[in-house]
């Protein structure tokens, strides 16, 4: 992806959305909707950086839909411990 994509494609409110409490749950919802649209059932999830965060959240919310999870360069900050 080019720098232009990140400047134009992300929208004017991206920073606010990314830092909001909505980012993670809405991204999990979008991943689930995409899987359903493509007819993907139980699968392997590989995520890098924020994709890893969403992969962890997705796996916790829908454990029966994930075969394995691989996450790299991921720092999952949350006030809720990962064990919860």
Summarize the structure.
This protein is 48% helix and 15% strand. The protein has helices spanning 3-8, 14-19, 23-38, 50-61, and strands spanning 43-48, 66-72. The chain starts with a helix and ends in a 12-residue tail after the last strand.
Question: Describe it for me?
Answer:
The structure is a single chain. This protein has helices at 3-8, 14-19, 23-38, 50-61, and strands spanning 43-48, 66-72. It has 84 residues and is an alpha+beta fold. The chain has a two-stranded parallel sheet with strand order 1-2. It starts with a helix and ends in a 12-residue tail after the last strand.
Rounded Rg: 14 Å
Give the proportion of residues in helices.
40-55%
Beta-strand content: 15-25%
Question: Which overall shape is indicated by the principal axes computed on the Cα atoms?
Answer: globular
Distance between the termini: 35 Å
Which regions are unreliable across 5 or more consecutive residues at pLDDT < 50? Answer: 1-8
How many β strands by DSSP? Answer: 2
- Helical stretch count? 4
Strand order of the largest sheet: 1-2
